[in-house]
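We treat protein structure as text, and this decision shapes the records that our systems exchange. The remainder of this section carries one protein's record, kept here as part of the documentation:
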Amino acid sequence: MYGITAFWSISSIVQLAVYIVSALAFFKLAKLRCMPYPWLAFIPLFNLYVIGYIGDTLKYNTAPFNRYLSDVPLAYALPILSIVSSMAWAVPFLGGLISGILSLVLYLAQVMVYLFVFQQYEPRNKFLFTLLSLIPVVGPALILYSIREYR
């Protein structure tokens, strides 16, 4: 009984730490990109808006993605995709599959924003850093590392 409680407590603390590091990284990046309300990075659904906004400001620097994403407003697409993914469970029979696919698309879109960030701020290591950002806390830590010299 106490083992399960301890596990859930430690798991919750680790998730909170990952969330705070991620929010801090995107807060600093939003301030650097002159976003009007960078503190939105600390609010759960609005942090996707901040990530999408940063992606929107950086996607034009990456030619292959700019061709396909120039008309997609990531600032609105990421939060909407998250909401639809959460609501997809209500669909009978295929709800879990649809939700899983939409969650995967959302995750890949966030990884793509990491690529845009590293393309701008750490171009020599952009692919390595993007690959390492698949690990939850490593991506935000690498963002903080990449923007350390910018003001």
Remarks:
- The chain has seven helices and no strands.
- The mean pLDDT is 88.
